[in-house]
Amino acid sequence: MVKLENMKNISLSDSVINLDHGDPTAYEEYWRKIGDRCTVTIRGCDLMSYFSDVNNMCWFLEPTLAEAIKELHDAVGNAATEDRYIVVGTGSTQLCQAAVHALSSLAGTQPVSVVAAAPYYSTYVEETTYVRSGMYKWEGDAWGFDKKGPYIELVTSPNNPDGTIRETVVNRPDDDEGKVIHDFAYYWPHYTPITRRQDHDIMLFTFSKITGHAGSRIGWALVKDKEVAKKMVEYITVNSIGVSKESQIRTAKILKVLKETCKSETENFFEYGHEMMKNRWEKLRGVVKESDVFSLPKYPEAYCNFFGKTLGSYPAFAWLGTKEETDLVNELRRRKVMSRAGERCGSDKKHVRVSMLSHEDVFNVFLERLANMKLIKSIDL
Amino acid sequence: MVKLENMKNISLSDSVINLDHGDPTAYEEYWRKIGDRCTVTIRGCDLMSYFSDVNNMCWFLEPTLAEAIKELHDAVGNAATEDRYIVVGTGSTQLCQAAVHALSSLAGTQPVSVVAAAPYYSTYVEETTYVRSGMYKWEGDAWGFDKKGPYIELVTSPNNPDGTIRETVVNRPDDDEGKVIHDFAYYWPHYTPITRRQDHDIMLFTFSKITGHAGSRIGWALVKDKEVAKKMVEYITVNSIGVSKESQIRTAKILKVLKETCKSETENFFEYGHEMMKNRWEKLRGVVKESDVFSLPKYPEAYCNFFGKTLGSYPAFAWLGTKEETDLVNELRRRKVMSRAGERCGSDKKHVRVSMLSHEDVFNVFLERLANMKLIKSIDL
């Protein structure tokens, strides 16, 4: 066993590690320990129809998933679910596009401007440009955006890539043409203090980043306005005729267990996740502190309603900066660490986004390489 | 039990029956009988990563599914899989859009015209118009299409809605700008004789219509050209960051059992499906024959390489016509039968598309109502 682990380390120490994507494999160990309680068994004759609930506007939403979503938000206290439509999607990626589509199709004039405050989630750019829609137009950074006419601001809080708490930055309170999509992928207690129960018009969540089940491709939107929800459902109907039922019933089961563990002293997933993230961030900050080369954002502490105490933030991505005039993504690539270029996020070459949710051994290799980069830099000087 | 069944019939006899969508619940009974062999069990710690195979261009394709797809096509003999890329999608709906996107993005000029010979699958219209892309433009009926420049012809064979065997109708053999997407959703032995092993550039298949597992949202494309496959993968990456893994591994398991039953004398799924469809078509043709009001297409017999004998076609949809000058979709709606309007398929008011894949009791209610419509019509005259 020891031999095997050593071999694994040797092989890892040579290989490229990919921290570009936020593949959340860090939580696998927790779910392994939870064991059979999350196991789903699906027979050959189950889940065959397109339809999940013909009486629901979102006819492809499995009722057990809708229930699990509501119960989890109630238990965590991070979002209001009452008087809202739940729309399920193939990840929040599909839902974000559905929401942009819905708001644009209801706007008075088109194309509708789409903006997000830099640094922003780089995928927003691709999502709003790849089909070259005539309905909306990516207008980039929301800071300084002053174009007239209808617009959509994408607000991610905590923000991807830099982990900051965000609100809208395009301030046009009396402008009926301004709409906001709140992406709350990371508004969960292991990443950030839950300071309020969010109750915005359109709120997006994703299974991937809560529990680490990225392969299931499940996200959901909580939507206040009926017409917007309806248009989102229409989008998903044409885009993929609904959402995998296997993924939905598995998500429902896991979210129910997640909710149950919220009360547990020994198995609380958020406690586990929080400790793991805190530990990783402390290690990373340690390496960065030792270096004269790198920088990381600082996050204020806040009272977390879920944990009932004052806590820091431990984002799913590190927004790593450098004090040198250098192309950081290339520097890291030379050390076989793949990261996302700051430029893709509307920022600069001196920043990269690095996933904090990799497997433990990959994370440790990353720390090692980062520490060594500092040494090499020192020699370079 | 008898009482319960009667009650069910009474309730059905009053209710609206939906044969607009092709919800393929007819096969549920078969899969119930197959029992545990198709059961999948997924633990909480399984399938967590975004990635299925980092060495495959289609990095989100589960290797077991790729294998099952190849084995099934080999066993059935309906399509060539060698020297092709397999791209998995959230149903063939997502794949069709991915293919149109890929071909358009590789075209010399844009927008690329998209056409299909009427009557065509009505969803093609929605798929190619809803995002108002600047890359391609739905140009409607392929018969008589003569616009210059790049174009994509969608060929569905057997055709949805009318069950005919189709080839391209835009005949420009020397035109490099003409591309074809072959939708072979229904090219399986229970619907139509397998007369040749198809080997076109882009071929789409869907799990839904083979086995009836529509809720899984799994489709696949067999693609010859590497660049096209790559662009399709890029589309799906931005559209939904891959495809549900739960659905993929379940599809793999069921396709493997399906392949195994191909050799069975007692459990052959295609034999079962063929008998069921033949039986339904005979009943429907019986009702139509008794009526002076309705018409159905006739299909030639052909030698089926899979069954090793000459057989007829028994499409998944009935393309029901009327000899009266009437709006057939409304006439049926008045009798509480929902169907798809011929006009939506590029045809006329005198035709509708009716699903042949409903539950047995729903199908029988449909036949009853159709038979009664004839009577009512006779009285009307």
Write a concise keyword list for the protein shown above.
homodimer, 381 residues, alpha/beta, Aspartate Aminotransferase, domain 1, Aspartate Aminotransferase, domain 2, 2 domains, seven-stranded mixed sheet, four-stranded antiparallel sheet, 16 strands, globular, disordered C terminus, PyrdxlP-dep_Trfase_major (chains A, B), Ethylene_sulfur-biosynth (chains A, B), (rape) hypothetical protein (chains A, B), transferase (chains A, B), cytoplasm (chains A, B)
Please tell me about this protein's structure.
The first copy, chain A, has 381 residues and is of the alpha/beta class. Chain A is built from 11 helices and 16 strands. Chain A has 2 domains: 12-32 and 268-376, Aspartate Aminotransferase, domain 1; 47-262, Aspartate Aminotransferase, domain 2 (3-Layer(aba) Sandwich), CATH 3.40.640.10. Chain A is 38% helix and 18% strand. In chain A, the strands form 4 sheets. In chain A, strands 3-9-8-7-6-4-5 form a 7-stranded mixed β-sheet. In chain A, strands 10-13-16-15 form a 4-stranded antiparallel β-sheet, with helices on one face. A two-stranded parallel ribbon of chain A has the order 1-14. The model of chain A is unreliable at 1-8 and 375-381 (pLDDT under 50). At the A-B interface, α2, β2, α4, α5 and α7 of A face α2, β2, α4, α5 and α7 of B. Chains A, B: One of its GO terms (molecular function) is carbon-sulfur lyase activity.
